[in-house]
Design goal:
The protein is an alpha+beta fold and about 325 residues long. The N terminus is likely disordered. It has twelve helices and eleven strands. It has two domains: about 180 residues, Jelly Rolls; about 120 residues, Orthogonal Bundle (Arc Repressor Mutant, subunit A), CATH 1.10.10. It is about 40% helix and about 20% strand.
């Protein structure tokens, strides 16, 4: 499960008698607003950290917002600064996520529930560079989340306690920044071939075969798959499919009425049905329903769809 990248909000509250879930195009923009504030991080962490930011969610009092999240190939660390975030299981509100959560890559969609007073600080890691901070193969974290105490033991629990008594996002950032810097000596090197294969996938928007990636990496496809899964958290084929899906989603913000057959071809799909398969696998929605519930409500200069844009220039 990967939290809060691009939202497909559905709102419930006392003003809706049946407490049903309503599409974002009906209520989402009126009910929920999101403000994103970037935070500068120590330069020594730049090869490992993509970004650090705080997202503040404004929701009307007495309402909740349920959000579908999409597949995401970037591991992260997320701190809930306000009201907790809950999982949705079988259409019902489930347990709250850890206050300081460590997330692996996500190969599929999930659903969460937020309430008034929620904000969170996110540290997103460069692909394959989270090893010093996760402490094991990234595959162990795929589609899962853990508390920092589960990952770091006593040290993690002590940090969780400090954060619980901290009132500002700047202080939380400082605590985590110091903890990450302390773990830098655990960096054991990065397989150059995996880096080159990943850069090729990002550079071509995911439209590259595993054999082509292996050739770029100077190794067999089998060896690349093993290393890629260990360092990135997912197989190279899935990584490319998600990057292609993200590239297509990013392009939708400029589309008034998508011509799906043409977009499918331009995105490198052999058949439109393959594109539909990826939308269902990575967002839980068909292309049209995704466009109506996410793209249309997100249209505008500050569109969160920019979060889908792959970054081919991540630090080595």
């Amino acid at each position: 499960m990967k939290p809060l990248w691009v939202f497909s909000p559905r709102v419930s509250g006392p003003e809706h008698p049946c407490r049903g879930n309503h599409p974002a195009s009906d209520y989402g923009l009126k009910t929920m607003k999101m403000k994103k504030t970037p935070l500068a991080f120590n330069a020594a962490l730049s090869p490992f950290v993509r970004y650090c930011n705080v997202k503040t969610i404004s929701i009307k009092h007495g309402e909740t917002v349920r959000n579908k999240t999409q597949a995401d190939p970037w591991p992260s660390m997320v701190v809930s600064l306000g009201s907790p975030v809950h999982r949705i299981r079988g259409g019902r509100t489930g347990p709250a996520l850890p206050k300081v959560a460590v997330f692996g890559v996500a190969e599929g969609p999930d659903e969460i529930e937020m309430r008034p007073g929620h904000s969170h600080l996110t540290i997103s890691f460069n692909p394959g560079r989270a090893h010093p901070f996760f402490g094991t193969t990234l595959k162990e974290f795929s589609d899962r989340e853990f508390s920092l105490g589960d990952v770091w033991g006593r040290e993690g629990r002590e940090i969780e306690e400090r954060i619980a008594h901290t009132g500002s996002s700047a202080a939380v950032k400082s605590i985590l920044e110091s903890a990450l810097l302390k773990r830098l000596p655990l960096e054991s090197g990065y397989p150059a071939g995996v880096l080159e294969a990943m850069r090729a996938a990002l550079r071509h928007g995911g439209k590259v075969s595993v054999n082509e990636m292996a050739q770029t990496a100077g190794m067999s496809a089998v060896h690349l798959k093993r290393l890629f899964t260990q360092w990135v958290g997912m197989a190279p084929k899935i990584f490319c499919r998600i990057i292609r899906f993200q590239s297509l989603c990013a392009s939708l913000s400029s589309q008034r009425k998508p011509e799906w057959a043409g977009l499918s071809y331009e995105s490198g799909y052999a058949h439109q049905s393959h594109m539909i398969r990826d939308f269902l696998a990575f967002s839980g929605e068909t292309p049209s329903s995704f466009y109506d519930s996410v793209v249309v409500p997100s249209a505008g200069p500050g569109s969160p769809l920019k979060a889908f844009q792959p970054d081919p220039t991540f630090h080595a």
